[in-house]
Write a structure and sequence with these properties.
It comes from Sphingomonas kaistensis. This protein has about 150 residues and is of the alpha+beta class. It has a domain of about 90 residues. The protein is about 25% helix and about 25% strand. Strands 1, 2, 3, 4 and 5 form a five-stranded antiparallel sheet that branches. The N and C termini lie far apart (about 85 Å). The relative contact order is 0.13.
């Protein structure tokens, strides 16, 4: 009888722990070292870079002449926040004519760790209570002279 009870408890424990398995995940661009080394300043242009590496992960927000290829490997266990194992960002800059002017590579050392400030965002001005926030707009909708109102 003890063996049967032990087997049942061991099975329940094994099922419970199976949900806590860790896993690795690779996201973004799959970086091929030889192909990324083949992009040369002064030789390549946007068309040749796209043929060699493919479309970029994203382009610069303020400058279309910057292309970024981002590759990231993470590891996580159960329900914890994923931990970055490796990251590579390949940044290729072009001149206005579309020729490569710079190829830069950065790693996970450039990842910024941002800690939130408490549970609320500090603001300037008067602090309102829950009821002031909830009932504060009663009577202002549709009144004249206020933004969004039905005034002249």
């Amino acid at each position: 009888m003890n063996n049967k009870r032990f087997v049942i408890l061991a099975s329940i424990a094994a099922l419970g722990l199976s949900g806590c398995a860790g896993y690795r995940e690779k996201r973004g661009f799959i970086l091929d070292e030889q192909l990324s080394q083949a992009v040369q300043v002064g030789t390549d242009n946007k068309t040749s870079v796209e043929r060699t590496l493919g479309r970029p992960t994203f382009t610069g927000q303020f400058n279309d002449n910057e292309w970024y290829y981002v590759s990231r490997s993470t590891s996580t266990f159960a329900f914890r926040t994923p931990r970055v194992i490796d990251q590579t960002v390949l940044r290729i800059r072009f001149d206005p004519a579309g020729n490569v002017t710079a190829v830069e590579r950065t790693g996970k050392d450039k990842i910024a760790s941002i800690d939130p400030y408490g549970r609320t965002t500090p603001t300037l001005g008067r602090r309102k209570s829950f009821f002031e926030e909830f009932f504060g707009n009663i009577g202002t909708v549709g009144s004249g002279g206020l933004p969004g109102g039905g005034g002249q």
